[in-house]
Amino acid sequence: MSEPISTCLILGGGGQLGQQLTWLLQEQSPYQVRSLTSSELDITNPDAIAAELDGHPTDLCINCAAYTQVDKAESESEAAYRVNETGSRYLAEACRDRGLWLIHISTDYVFNGTQSTPYCETDPTNPLGVYGKSKLAGEEAIRQICPYHIILRTAWVYGAYGAKNFVKTMLRVGAEREELRVVCDQIGSPSWTGDIARAIAQLLPYLTPENAGTYHFTSSGAASWYDFAVTIFEEAQQLGFPLQVKRVVPIPTSEYPTPATRPAYSVLNWQKFANLVDTYPPHWRNGLRKMLAEFQQMG
User: Fold this and answer.
1) Mean pLDDT across the stretch 164-180?
2) Which of 18, 46, 50, 224 is deepest in the core (most CB within 10 A)?
3) Is 131 annotated in the active site?
């Protein structure tokens, strides 16, 4: 399929990225956009997917639906695989059978974090936990099934929409405590949903068979969770957020054990994406500033 995209369906439209993308495409794009939350359309139900696609004109599905609870996935592997692998497979089959494009959001956690240079799309995957393994299984299903696909890996996602993310957690605990201890030896690229949504919009004119495949997109720059937390408080203070925090103490991962092992270094190389759309991602601190202002306006 190489005709221009005119109608698109966003799945997982109730999540932090889904909501941001829905707003952006409905407000600022020429496309006709439908957006369904995971309760409105469950991607693990192939009959529901078929009914939706057969009932409405659709050129493109954008899959933001995912099981993203990294630690919980260790004890809920069946639930994680059901959404991240089986749901992705059903969606890929439905798109293949109708000749539709599929943009699928994936994660830096498909890598094990032993590199010291940003991961390229061609680097070997080796996820450490159930979440990363289930997301990789979803990627592989899509590659095998649906020829018209783009898998877009991103990382350390946060936004003003949605229930929980690192920035919102820091704002909450920073308003309650004077001292916080934050891991300093995991490195990644904090990525604002506004930047990711814009990247997806930038991809849409380039949906041609020769451009199908896997791409990386994050905000530019890298940080540890500790760096990110310190910057959150610096920026939030300037905007007048109510904060009690006076000290952020850097700690090693070994002092903050979690059920899931996370990659120590998961910075993604986004050059392939930048070459395609001829645009470089904004720095993560710019995205953070915009997210905090947006979150403040939402009250």
Assistant:
1) 96
2) 18
3) yes
In a domain, 232, yes or no: no
Both tokens assigned to 121: 């799309």
The angle that helices 284-298 and 193-203 make with each other, rounded to 10 degrees, is: 110
- Terminus-to-terminus CA distance in the chain, angstroms? 43
Q: If pLDDT is split at 50, 70 and 90, which confidence band does 299 have?
A: confident
231 lies in some domain: no
User: What's the number of CA atoms in the CB half-sphere (13 Å) around residue 228?
Assistant: 31
CA dihedral (20, 239, 243, 161) in degrees, to 10, reads -10
90, 109, 131, 226: the catalytic one is 131
Half-sphere exposure (Cβ direction) of 61: Cα atoms closer than 13 Å:
32
Domain of 157, in residue numbers: 7-164+191-220+266-281
Question: What is the CATH number for 204?
Answer: 3.40.50.720
Question: Would you say 193 and 159 are in contact if contact means Cβ atoms under 8 Å apart?
Answer: yes
Share above pLDDT 90 across residues of the chain, in percent, rounded to a whole number? 94
156: left (phi over 0), alpha (psi -120 to 50) or beta: left
d(CA 275, CA 191): 19
Ramachandran category for residue 35: left, alpha or beta (phi over 0 → left; psi -120 to 50 → alpha)? beta
| Predicted confidence (pLDDT) per residue in 126-162, tens digit | 999 999 999 999 999 999 999 999 999 999 999 999 8
pLDDT in tens, 97-133: 999 999 999 999 999 999 999 999 999 999 999 999 9
User: In sequence order, which residues have a C-beta less than 8 Å from that of residue 138 and are 6 or more positions away?
Assistant: 84, 85, 87, 88, 89, 104, 106
User: Tokens 């937390």 sit at which residue?
Assistant: 229
Q: What pTM, to 2 d.p., does this model score?
A: 0.96
Q: Cβ contacts of residue 162 below 8 Å, gap of 6+?
A: 15, 16, 17, 19
